[in-house]
Amino acid sequence: MNILRPTRLVPFLALCGALALLGCDDDDDGGNGGTADAGMGGTPGAGGTPGMGGDPGAGGDPGAGGDPGMGGTPGMGGEPGMGGMGGEPMNGPDVSTVALLEAYLEGKPLLMAGEDIPTDPNGFNENVNFGQATQCYHRIEMTVQGGAFNLTTTTGVLEDAPEAGNVGTCDRDTAGVELMFQTTSYVIENLAGNAECFDITLTFMGFGQEGRGALSPDGSALWLEVFFKDQATGHRCADGGVGDQTVTLNGMPFMGDAVQVFQIGE
Fold it and tell me: What does pTM read for this prediction?
């Protein structure tokens, strides 16, 4: 709609369409979205969604040291970690409103690859054979431009899982099929602090994704923890931060890692 590697949390988004080869049943209105037959929503077997891997870290808390004096130096406490979710931005951008966040992301290349890919994109394990709805990813490139999230998703190769439902090994290093997606609409709302958490809803042609996200304090990475529309509860900022174990997926507590991490370029 994933970039830094903070402490694992939990996904912007089980691809519906396998990433794109199967359609979905959602009734979201279509628009200028990507490939019509490449769904990203729905349950496994119905298609896939671009992964957005990684979790925001909890960040370090200030230590025991006191506040710096007028000319003094800080005490023994450290600054919040670069992957932390709290505290003031560390030489980072002002993204304290939705408009400022959108302006900051506009046109920048975002990339999720390698260790930034979560083990359970959209809540479904990358090592399970979901047919065309594979959650095994090689990389996802994304831009936010022209009022849309634009994604180029390259699947990985799932090994030793020949039949649907088999558990094998996702080879992230080997590129599989390339698919393209574009949102028909999106909503970012309920932004807290300096984009320490915000709710996000993505609508694609034939399916949707919803969840929560955050921007790293230094502005170098975007974290997205998303699930297919109407499959999850407890996945909004009111329930907890990105990666917190507050999510129920299809009626079961979700204990995996669905946080997609997109590294932000210039």
Answer: 0.69
